[in-house]
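Box 4.2: Ligand-aware structure prediction
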Amino acid sequence: MSFVLACPHCGPRPVDEFAYSGEVTRRPQSSPTLRELTDYVYFRDNVAGRQREWWQHRQGCGEWFLAERDTRTNEIISVSLPKPGT
Amino acid sequence: MSALYFMSPARCTPETLASPLERGLVGAPESLRDLSPDGKVELRGDLARVGLAEGDELIRLTPRRGFLLTGDPLAAIDRSRANGVLAYDMTGALGGLAFEGETLFRRLTDLDPGALPTAGGFARISAILVRDEGERFRAYFPQELGHYVVEVVLDVLAGLAGGRSHRA
Amino acid sequence: MRLPAQPGELIDRAEPLGFRLGEYRLEGFRGDTIGSALFANGRRVFSRSFKYHRPRGLLCCSGHCPNCMMTVDGVPNVRVCVEPLREGAVVTPQNVLGRLDMDFLSVVDKFGGPFTPVGFYYRTMIRPRFMWPVYEKFLRGVAGLGRLDEHAGHSRRYDVEHRRARVLVIGGGQAGRAAALAAATAGPGVVLVDESVRLADVELPGVEVLAPARALGIWEGKLVPVDSGTVLYRYRAERIIVATGTVEQPLVFPGNDLAGVMLPEAARRLIRDFSLRPGQRAIVLAADERAPEIAETLREAGVAVPRVVDLREGARQLEAHGRRGHVRRVVVDGEETKCDLVVVSGGRQPAYSLLSQAGGRVEYDESLKVFVPRDLPAGIEAVGSVTGEGIVRAEGAAAYEGSGKCFVCICEDVTTKDVKRSIEEGFDSIELSKRYTTVTMGPCQGKLCQLPSIHLYAHELHTYEATIGTTTARPPWAPVELGLLAGRHLEPTRRTSLHFRHEELGARMMWAGPWKRPYAYGEHPEDEVRTVHESLGVIDVSTLGKLLVEGPEAAQLLERLYPNRFADLKAGRIRYGVLTSDGGRIMDDGTVARLADDLYYVTTTSTGADAVTAWFEWWNAVWGYDAEIVNVTGALAALNLAGPRSRDALQRLTEDELSADEFRYLDAKHIEVAGVPCLALRIGFVGELGYELHFPSSAAEYLWDRLLADGARPFGLEPQRILRLEKGHVIVGQDTDSESNLLSAGMPWLPKMDKDDFVGKFALEHFAERDERELLVGFTMEDDVVPAEGAQIVVEGQPAGRVTSARRSEQVGAVIGLGWLPRDRADAGTRFEVRVDRRLVGARVHHGAFFDSAGERMRS
Ligand code: FES
Ligand SMILES: [Zn+2]
């Protein structure tokens, strides 16, 4: 893995400056069933294709952001700052 | 801000203070200078509203996060907070090292020496890199890694000077 | 014997260089490679082959094949044909028992023939079972290539340098140079990399030439590591132009591996670069158009060329025979010619590996009978013969019939027979067969064997090369020293501001996550424990993670991050907190002090600072509370001053009031100690009256010295572990693991389930509905033995749990510990057994602290 990812603030940087935190999940609102909870905690779509995921520019500016990446090619389609509360 | 006085070396009696790079830099070439005691303030908030004093150097990491290199961190903190920007004294948190040479720079980081200041990977840790005139650079990094940084820099320098053996 | 000076020869005859081969002292010239110098000294056998230990000589002279690998100055597997000669070099042959020209292992070739077919080891050496250790010992001794110098890592320096290029051209042939020059007209930032020393002095206006150096591969993000010896240049390029040209292919016929069988380029380099005559009497066998040209070059150098065969002129039967591994005669269609040199040309295969690594497709070109690159990814281009341009179709490059071994892969000693056999056994796809026969998996990485082996498969399977396809080309394109890939050894070590004080005091330092910490200062950690119980100890806890959380919504943020409550915490007070994940698992713990309405000071475990900071920041990126999270771990040193004398001792250094009423247990207070502003936290991890002082790390040595001068005795991590165990305090990550939750780890009182939401709440709701299978409890051993961490807990003869911590405590007068037990065995006083060494020792469950269970001492 040596692809380049563009931090929304710092611009293109080698991927090893970033921390990866997996695909974007949807947290249940309140008291989920055990099934809903395990779905959320343990199961991922793991798509071969475009995926929305969390990244943090850990060694740089520290920002958490969202990236859309093609998991087959590591092509980054877009990056954006999260809109909190959504 | 009085609740955070306990973070400020400037509030200690001067003779109590030491630098994390002190021991590592004994006998080091003069091109390496210890900048650890210099004032450093972390800013959170609307950086456009930070008031700068003469000689202050503002490094923007994001629109809401920056570092201020300043001769008087206490005054800078008061001024920023008065302007509604949170400010923290990071003078003791960050070690600082000035060094010379673009080759040395390239052996420590793959940041673009033409696109500084910025924060990024440096000798496998995270640092803020600044460029001064010519091939002079400054790096600021967690002080607990300061001795490590000096060891690495000295070793790379030895390599550039044609030395063969690692930490012989 | 050198030829008269050749135009453009690389050697400097005025400067002889001495070197050693085994016990021999030899001489060459500056400009020689070790290989050419050895050749000039009459050496014809350079190595012994991998499996059969057959003698091998210079084949390519270009660093492509395995034949000239030797150990040079302790570095194994050096291609001596491209390794510049240096004064005093010590060269030793590899893969040899005895001498190069008299290798005892070559019996494998003579007698082992039928016993060493492909798959031999898999099939044979597994029986009889008990013999395996004997086989293994022998095999380990003879297998592999070269011997590693175990100390080499300390004597060689490797470095990595990061570079950028607008245009990176790989390959400095005609096409590569032209492309570089064209790119340079558009501006600076053009770099050309070439393997040959010849390029070192070439001037190309506007182009930076890097030679001799080797591009090892093209990685994602247009990353090209370039090997230049002991520095690895990591190039990031905007545009990459590959001009790697072609690799000359050998012919496949019986005896094709004998020393003296050479590719045209090898002969050409020996003559032109080093002024050496490659042989006296040569036969030229060419499957392409180059026969006359090769013969001409040889004749110019004074080599007799009695026979020139253009193999395209019809099916031929070829055989080479030799003596002592060196070619002596060649039989072409039954007609024999004596010779000591056979120059073979099997055509040229585009060197497409870099392009296919970069994501290009590789396709068999039926008209050229070679593989060519197609469909290159954006930003990657190919120029020159690597595209197939200018290549003439080769015909008759293989003559499989005849007597003697016929090698399709010289690296791995795979013969045509081996490949046929693997096909008979059902390995009829190239990728499977490759793994079975190991064809293309040797040091040449397929450069000389991929195309011939695919031709062979097509021939045997009566199909087309295009159907067979190629094996996957993976980086590196050329072998590289591991040291170079590893680069400088970088191990970021975190040291507290008191690191050198600890060393001066003779502390035994140990790793604690990324930190170095004192294990203990003396031989007897229990002495340090006693000091804390009886008088005054001090421990450096600067490694604690320290975070500030500040802002109008700081309280809401913490309220939602922690299972327990922090909104109602009064300014100046402290509360213990545990972080859990949404899966309900325990992640980290520490204290939270409220310094002001909108300002909290959070501590984490020593290894948790970065992860907790990132965790807080991530959740806040999701929730968007108006609060800032600032990691101030390094800004602050922290000392825990503990023991019955701590209040008096500290009071002597401060004017602030420390009385039990003014500064209560779990208070956080700003005080000034010996001129240093401190945040003092009254907490009791070690169970005695104590103060945790947090203050600017720059003043750490000063304050430490003052405290020691005042009678405080330092204690290390080990005594601290004993002390906390006496209190039954859990260490997250030591006593808990990724399966532990608050209910099972003995903290059911901690989560406040009536809160609207907190991370982990959903899971805890579900945990509450079931019974935990295992509980974390304390225990006391019946005998004076200390079980290891992880020791098995045994109930009624069955394994039932495990010990997570155990220490001998003088204070308690017993060996105490923590461990996981089945819930129905976890009641206080229940007896169970622990496996210690080979025996079972009794133990009894103990709830709560083992010592001062009411906590009076720390609250005093
Ligand atoms: S002869 Fe040296 S690598 Fe082929
Ligand atoms: Zn960034």
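In the box above, the bound molecule is FE2/S2 (inorganic) cluster. The beta strands of chain A are 4-7, 11-14, 19-23, 50-56, 64-70, 75-80.
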